[in-house]
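This week, think about what follows.
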Amino acid sequence: MARAQKVSYFAMQIPNRAGEAGRILAGLAKAGVNLLAFTGFPSGNRSQVDFIPANPTTFLAVARGMKLRVRGKKTGFLVRGSDQRGAIAKVMLKLARAKINVTAVDAVCAGAGRFGAILWVKQKDVNRAARSLGA
């Protein structure tokens, strides 16, 4: 069974060059920021990185101190559960039945019989998605 929770996430654009994400992540870790999830992908000639911090207030304070240009807080979902065939399909079907389009999703087997996923819906659909997912 999967459990979903609403989470705050922050996105930013960074140069698309080797080591840039690692430098930022190391700085956040050194300053005590705990990330629940992180993802990045190319966006034109740059990269977009998304951070899902355990404590958004701490994250923002540290990001400001590091002079990171993160965009304002948005809401996404963190899903965790037992790894089984079709685990993420069940989550996606709940949203489909509610006629909610998922704009992006990253899912992974986490080992030890667990899986995790982060997913995003349009901000206007967050409350309906939360109800559908029991978040």
Observations:
- The longest helix spans residues 20-30.
- The CA atoms of residues 50 and 122 lie 15 Å apart.
